[in-house]
Amino acid sequence: MIDLGAYWREVILAYAMTLLILALLIGWSYRTSIRTEARLRALERETHDS
Amino acid sequence: MNKTETLWALANPHRFIRLTNALLPFVWASSLILLVVGLVWGFAFTPLDFKQGSTVKIIFLHVPTALMAINVWLMMLAASLIWYIRRHHVSALAAKAAAPVGAMMAVAAIATGALWGEPMWGTWWAWDPRLTSFFILLLCYVGYIALWSTFEDAEWAADATAGLCLLGSVFALLSRYAVNFWNQGLHQGATLSLDPETNIHNDFYLPLLVSIAGFVLLSIALILYRTRTEIRRRRIEQLLAAKQQA
């Protein structure tokens, strides 16, 4: 068992908050990338077809 | 091909995307491994500090995020200077892509600093030189992101944001070096030092180095990944403009 002493709330909150921020940043970047790539492919197909 | 030619070859969007296709899996994987090792080591396998207790474990988050918030801005400065001097669009887009990464690192550094400060200083926040210059750096990030979206013309936007980047660099450098020459305020001096007498103990130093390496690689991976998205977004704008003209 890890002993975090009297300040366990602060330590756990700091780790949880940072990991949440990193997860949001990675998730948002991934979502934007997928959407942009799909839109570009659709536009290129459209341009090629016409 | 010499090294200089290799660097400028990245100004070609197709070459940039090809190179990052090959690089990104390794950068993502190594950043994830180093982050997991560094953070688990720091959280679970380091002793409590005799004065600070378990709050010392926040160092493995606070120092790397603060370091990256400052270094990402300096990377944006280099990219902005390349844009001003050589007008390479990929460098301007890389600076644009890096801004949210640096901003989120700054938010994480301020949040973890506040959680560390409250039990140790008795306050969440103090307007001391390092904290104030760091807060202004965060505002510069927000302003930089907002400025990109205020211009319709991409070249105007790149010029204006590169100017703001030059201005904000003062605060990036100030928040890095404020503790060295501004001997007042609550924030402690530099954590890492080449002098073994003032450097932190190896029990904390080694996991901190691993954690810093993880955050550096994660930031690089995110910036490369987001720059590819910005290149594709620019291509969409060009295609839409061509479609409207036709």
SSE blueprint:
The complex is a heterodimer of chains A (50) and B (246).
Chain A: H1 8-49
Chain B: H1 3-9, H2 13-44, H3 59-86, H4 89-121, H5 129-148, H6 154-181, H7 202-245
Helix pairs in contact in B: 2-7, 3-4, 3-6, 3-7, 4-5, 4-7, 5-6
Structure commentary:
The complex is a heterodimer of chains A (50) and B (246). By secondary structure, chain A is mainly alpha-helical. Chain A is 84% helix and 0% strand. In chain A, 12% of the residues are buried. The mean pLDDT of chain A is 91. Chain B has helices at residues 3-9, 13-44, 59-86, 89-121, 129-148, 154-181, 202-245. In chain B, α3 runs antiparallel to α4 (89-121), α4 runs antiparallel to α7 and α5 packs antiparallel against α6 (154-181). The mean pLDDT of chain B is 90. Chains A and B meet through α1 of A and α2, α3, α4 and α7 of B.
Q: Which stretches of chain A are poorly predicted, pLDDT < 50 over at least 5 residues?
A: none
Distance between the termini of chain A: 66 Å
Would you report the number of β strands of chain B? Answer: 0
Q: Roughly what percent helix of chain B?
A: over 70%
Q: Cα-atom Rg of chain B, whole angstroms?
A: 20 Å
Q: How can the largest sheet of chain A be summarized?
A: none
Helix and strand sequence of chain A: H
Q: For the residues shown, what is the average pLDDT of chain B?
A: 90
Order of secondary-structure elements of chain B: HHHHHHH
- How big is the Rg of chain A? 21 Å
Overall mean pLDDT of chain A stands at 91
